[in-house]
């Protein structure tokens, strides 16, 4: 479970507070003890030997603990936990954790701690908790009237702004994955719901504020190990309200963008979302910027994670373009933004190799030169100038200008520095553009600020970014201490009420260690410089060109050797540890000087300022802001200490206070006789409180101080008194109205009864007449039905007979038709058989005749040939015979044709 703390402005607490009392541990007591696996486990005390307590845990294991490490368990705690942890009987870590865990198992992710809301990330969507119906329920509801909810916090801030006319802030803090970003969205959504009003060009201010979230997330959020949409920057949203308490403007400020993520990511994290969205853009967009698969780019392929579960980057790209339209970023500006994003991707693919000269470098290969030319084209600058800016440095001395080449490693560092600076400037421009588009109201009467910022961080390797983040959290913790702890107790002392001073953890000494400035102290005739904090030493080191991280670290070791918050790790020459409010963090000072200077390389500045693209040139008018953190982290889970302190001070203190006049104006109705008497305001307040039977309150010089929950009790009784008075007035009015209505109704009833009796007589006559008519109708109807039934049956019988006769006739007709057809078939069959026999006889005769004639002709031909040999006179006969043969041959062929024809 990840915990999220939301701090709200000072308001009346609506809870009854149960103070923790010291509890003696005895044999048989149920207690909590530390467990290496479960953190805490409950058990039962078996034996006590002096300061040692023998406890049998719930798992049956026997452990021995010292009395200070044994905490009593509340066996009578509600099974579902309490919604406000100031109600806990025992205020200690295991009790608070158990309460949070119990509620979490029941899907109750929100729990109050006085005026603080603790949220446990459910790691799932719970839309029913944040719909419009839920917002309507919490609208105007007192804190504590409904279940703990983030909407209640926002509503309290809004109502306090309306009632007291003062600006308010809501602090959202927690470690990565705790749900800070989603909670901030819900807060802004609810505030937009309360104070929405139409803006310019049909777009509402609140709509622009809400739509700025996906734009900022696209360019400022990334996947980390614990969170798929982790904000890598801090954000303060200032929502401005006019005199009618409607949203009139807004401003967004960002802090500590993690610039190093642009160039360095670890598996399985991702770079900023915008890079992947652009790589999933429509084909024509990718072709225009010469982009492809994310695996092809060095700044993206350092991790094997390229996609998020349940997220379609191509759809998200289109959604981001629509969100940009809503927040007022023009089409041309959007194109310029994605040109810069694409340029950064190409820039990351530029590699370097050793040059011919010592400590020099050149572009490694043609692939790198292609990406160099693409980067220059997208940034609209000269490719040669870009190359020189990456591999050369110019040093100006009073005597001359020296150009120095960079080795490949330094050139890579120069490349990454340019990428980080460009992306940081782009992000700042987007934020500024959103602010300009939304518009700030200079005449706003009040504001509500929502701060979403990192919690304390501790990496395996902690550098200047973590130092700045943790310093910020120390300042926030001190601010929290001052308002919840110090100012509370100072107020009690000022009012001279009975108050037992409560010790709390004060982190002022940590802040002095970090940010204390140099002081000059006069000592006779010379000034002695008193040591400042780490930041002062760092600034001093940055002013000396010969300073290194080793000299800076040695200076810290000497200056803070006796500071209990500062320690030097063993076997380290540059590391140092600070005991923060949340725990000890070890920092590596290797890059502190470089990151503290945080300047833009002159060559990079000159290159991009000279860009032919006005958008790119406009990104570099001033020095960049601080860079942010770089590596994956495991947070220190001890922001919890602040929760325990808040619980303790809330229960022991007086979170509600009102001046005597305000108290009498509000609660005078509870004791009218006190207001009627001539009493001093202070005395009158005491009389009212005594009449109400409240205990534990205090009366100061000018104010009434109430325990947690007492204000709610007085409000409930006040509401009861006002409700009873309203009921009396309503009762009299209802009596008058009821009597008047009775007289009118009685008169009307008499007239109505007369008319009704006449109507009944007419109705009875009509009924009798209708019954007589009905009898006649029934008689005629029955006759009609019987005759109709007879006619129907007769018609059916005739129809049936006709059908049967028709069937018989049809059957006879078919039989005769079939007989006639059979005779016809037989006749044709006999004729066919006779004709076939005749044709066969005819064919045989013809064949015989032809054979015989051919035989006779051949015989005659032989005789003629013999005669022709004997005499020439026979020539004529020969010719005749030949002619005869031809004639016979023709006739034979004719007979063959006829035979073939007849066959």
UniProtKB/TrEMBL annotation:
Q: Which UniProt keywords apply?
A: Actin-binding, ATP-binding, Calmodulin-binding, Coiled coil, Motor protein, Myosin, Nucleotide-binding, Repeat
Q: Name one GO molecular function term.
A: ATP binding
Q: Which SMART domains match?
A: IQ (SM00015), MYSc (SM00242)
Q: What CDD domains does this protein's entry cite? A: MYSc_Myo11
Q: What is this protein called?
A: Uncharacterized protein
Q: Which family does it belong to?
A: Belongs to the TRAFAC class myosin-kinesin ATPase superfamily. Myosin family. Plant myosin class XI subfamily.
GO biological process terms held by the UniProt record: actin filament organization; actin filament-based movement
Under InterPro entries, the record lists: IQ_motif_EF-hand-BS (IPR000048), Kinesin_motor_dom_sf (IPR036961), Myosin_head_motor_dom-like (IPR001609), MYSc_Myo11 (IPR036018), P-loop_NTPase (IPR027417), SH3_Myosin (IPR004009)
Outline the extent of the Myosin motor domain: 80-646, 647-719
Positions that bind ATP: 174-181
Can you tell me which residues the record assigns to a coiled coil? 864-898
Q: Give every Myosin N-terminal SH3-like domain span.
A: 26-75
Q: Name one GO cellular component term.
A: cytoplasm
